[in-house]
Amino acid sequence: MGARCPGRPLWRTGLGLLALLASASAAAQEAIDELAAKATDQTASLMSFQLNDWYTARLHGADGSANQIVLRAAIPFTLLRMNHIFRVTQGYATSSPSGRTGLVDTGIFDLVTFNQPWGRWGIGIAGTAPSGANGLSTEKWTAGPALGFVNSSAKIYNWGLFAQTFFSFAGSGSAPDVRLVNLQPIFGYQLGEGRSISLGNSALVYDFDKSDWSSLMLSANYGQVVSFWGHKWRPNVEAGYDFNNDLGNQRWVFRAGITLLLPK
Known about the structure:
Layout: H1 7-39, E1 47-59, E2 66-79, E3 82-95, E4 102-103, E5 106-116, E6 119-129, E7 140-151, E8 157-171, E9 179-192, E10 195-198, E11 203-207, E12 212-224, E13 226-228, E14 231-242, E15 250-262
Antiparallel strand pairs: 1-2, 1-15, 2-3, 3-4, 3-5, 5-6, 6-7, 7-8, 8-9, 9-10, 9-11, 10-12, 11-12, 12-14, 13-14, 14-15
């Protein structure tokens, strides 16, 4: 009877452990990349809290600069068996071309989302509250329908469109009415290891009263999902340019921020 090789079982066990570790590592990496994709998706059911600094370095046809500290929270919830994503954005102007500082108007939306084999779509309501300081507010309450979709059938990238409308219905009688639609193109490309590039805060804003575009802001955002303090975070940087050169419009905008991601 031949002697049994004592090293062979250990060798096989070692290969099995390596395979398990590789599988676990791949699964963990896939989860990180999936989280990075959700972080660039306006319709994703992902709780998050952001702290941002938005700096307008140059204006079209005018001198001066501006800066805002921006807080944003996205909170998913379920009501009547429907999935919602509620988001609130509050900015504070630390500098402006007029020299005024203080709160700016609060932005909100509530979107009911529906998952599909190809991705997700949602419908809801958007609006603003005139919480801004004097000279930094529209002085109008606004609301309007919101609609969006994101195609995520390819894991490496997602694309879509998010539309919000704002029509004033109350507020100061002496302030101009607001009738706007804000189209936000969505595109995110996953670079691996939690890294992604996206269109960030790109916004194409049409003013119905002027029958013209008031802003054509396109941005490029880079961020990476990282782990510390027992949570997932996405620090990111962004540069944007407004192709509408109306006098006083933002020209170059640079943004930096960090987002706390709280997946279910």
